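Thread: quick sanity check before group meeting

JM: Hey all, I'm pulling together slides for Thursday and realized we never actually wrote out the predicted structure for the chain we discussed last week. Dropping the sequence here so it's in one place. If anyone has concerns about the input, flag it before I start.
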Amino acid sequence: QVQLVESGGGLVQAGGSLRLSCAGSGRSFSNYPMGWFRQAPGKEREFVASISWSGGSTYYADSVKGRFTISRDNAKKTVYLEMNSLKPEDTAVYYCAARSSAWTVVVTTAAWNYWGQGTQVTVSS
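JM (edit): ok, ran it. Output follows.
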């Protein structure tokens, strides 16, 4: 199994940028596809982006495509989410997740096996 810890959240004005980090631990971290999800108050947790173990494949939700970029550095056991052109609608707790399976496009929350504690992102208008 792996342990995940998110950081980098905070308060930013609309149009600004933030870079989230997810520090992982565990011997299998580098073999797992990774993803980012978010959950706003009163709403269900939703998929944001995912990346294969090698970083060669990525997938984004339509709501963030063109604005967010997911990347990973397996040597540092860290996954990143670069968020640009932020909107108030992006306000949510952002979670890092790992999936102990081969790479494929998976957006269902229940299909992901490991989760971080979340980091708050607030975008003001």
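AS: nice. The longest strand covers residues 18-25. The chain is about 0% helix and 45% strand.
JM: adding both to the slides.
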